[in-house]
Every structure is written in C-alpha cells, then in structure tokens.
Amino acid sequence: MLDLCASEWVKRHPSAGPPRLRLLCLPHAGGSAAFFHEWGRRFGDDVEVLVARYPGRHDRIGDPVITTMDELADRLCAALRGFIDVPLAIFGHSMGASLGYETALRLSRRYGFRPAALMVSGRTPPDTPDDTLPDPDDVESVLAEVRRLGGTDAAVLDDPDLRELVLPALLADFKVVSGYTPRDCVALPLPVVAYVGDADPDVDVEVVRGWARASSVDFTLKVFPGDHFYLVDQRDRLVHDVGARLAALKERGSPRSTGHTLS
After folding, report:
1. What is the total count of domains within the chain?
2. Where does the record locate the signal sequence feature (predicted)?
3. Which structural domain range is residue 182 located in?
C-alpha cells in the first residue's frame, strides 16, 4: 500500500494489468501533472504512467513551494520508494529534464535502484550553463519568458485571477532552474535519450548532444520539428517514440538494482 507522501507527490495512471514497467513524467517550470494527462494509457496494458505533482499548484495549491533543485529531487525520490518494485523509466521536459537527471542519480546512489532509462527533453545538460533565464525575482521578466516560450500554460497568464493563483509556483520553479548552477555530469549506468525541437529558441541541438556525458551505456539524440514546446504539436510522434523505447526495455528486461553506489 502506498503511503500518503507518495500519493501527494505522484499522480498515477494505473495500467490495466500488473505493471511490468513504470514511466515517471516530470513537468516543466510552471507546469503541472495535467500536462501529461494524455500520456496516461498510451503505452500498453502493462505500463503504469506516473506524473510528478509539484507543490503549490492544483490539488497541492496549499502546500509550500520549493525553490531549490536539490530539495525538489530529495522530496520526490523519497516519495518514489513505493514505486520501484518494477523497472522505472524517467521522462522530463525542460526543468523536468534536470529533475529527472537528479532523480536518477539519487535513486542509484541512495537506494541502489537503477532506472531503466532517462529521457530528457528541451534542456541543457547539467554541466552546461543556461544564460537564457530571467531573474526569478523579477515577476514581469518571468511572465515575459513564459509567454515567449509558449506552451499550454501561457494562456493562463492572460486571466488576472488565474495568474495570481499560479504565480507563486511559477516563480518558485524559476528559482529552482536559476539556482541549478552547472555541476559535474555523472555518467549514469543507464541509457539516456535526449529530445529537442529544431527551432527551440533557447536550447541548441548541439548543446543537447552534450547529454551523452550523462550515460556510460548508450546515448540517443532525437530532434523533432518545433520550438521549446514541440511536444504539444508533436505529441503523437513523441509518444510513439517513447513507447517504442519502453517496449524495447520490457523485451530485454531491465535491472532494478545497481549493486553499487556511484562516485
């Protein structure tokens, strides 16, 4: 039985049968679990989709927001302990990609659990600075950045009442990203797949290729047409690609224990 902490942090899309594999989806800055709602039952009857529910939004609107990547990753990993009885793959977009890397690193180091794969989208690798971010204490700059990048959440900002509701979580997320300064990129013993839109205004395809340094096993770069939120217009193609990779993981099996800790 899952504990309360897990249910607060993770939105479950249960599989039709017993799960052979789980996919954890991590939203972007300002995003919520609703962003991945359509992914819930797209990967077969034996894949359970989990989506992280960050504090300060939707049904966690009253929970204190988190403003550092380390705390966010620590809290999420603690909640995931109830979900690592079967192989777990991770997909994260933008801020969620950095969180996915930190989550994979912690699961390996602290719990001896090796994720089946890490899939990162629209984000620079952890050892590469991001010079495109606005000052997280400048509200208007943050709002302008969200509008510039677009995505489904940008429309919320046009409603004054909704804007005030989502603003605390949005500013907190930008503090998380801005405070995530470049750090050593540990080569994880698992495959890494990096996705990016070919017209992303902030994330260059060649920079995304640097995610190869995050894997000691295998790296794949996949480029889709579109901007930072290419995964909205290209959802079906992206889901198909992710699904094919999950099917391959199930076919060959995936170790759940590292047997060691990473240095």
Report:
1. 1
2. none
3. 4-249
Domain assignment of residue 36, yes or no: yes
The yes-or-no verdict on residue 103 having pLDDT over 70 is: yes
pTM of the model: 0.93
pLDDT recorded at residue 255: 52
CATH code for position 230: 3.40.50.1820
- Rounded to whole angstroms, how far apart are CA atoms 3 and 34? 22
The question of whether 228 is a catalytic residue gets the answer yes
> Cα separation of 175 and 179, whole Å?
6
User: 131 to each of 37, 134, 182, 227, 238, how far by Cα in Å?
Assistant: 31, 9, 11, 18, 27
Tell whether 254 is covered by a domain.
no
- Exposure b/e, 103-114, CB count within 10 A at least 16 = b: bbbbbbbebebb
Q: Which of 15, 94, 215, 254 is catalytic?
A: 94
Q: How far apart are CA 47 and CA 250, in angstroms?
A: 9
Do the domain assignments include residue 117? Answer: yes
Q: Please indicate, yes or no, if residue 17 is contained in any of the structural domains.
A: yes
CA distances to 14, 25, 44, 118, 251 from 41, in Å = 8, 13, 7, 20, 19
Among 13, 28, 93, 228, the active-site one is 228
Pairwise CA distance, residues 180 & 70, whole Å: 8
SS3 content of the chain, % helix, strand, coil (to 5): 45, 15, 40
The residues, any chain, with a CB within 8 Å of residue 227's CB and separated by 6 or more, are 149, 150, 197, 199, 200, 201
Structure-token match 């509008």, residue found: 147
Quick one: average pLDDT of 198-219? 97
Q: How far is CA 30 from the centre of its chain?
A: 12
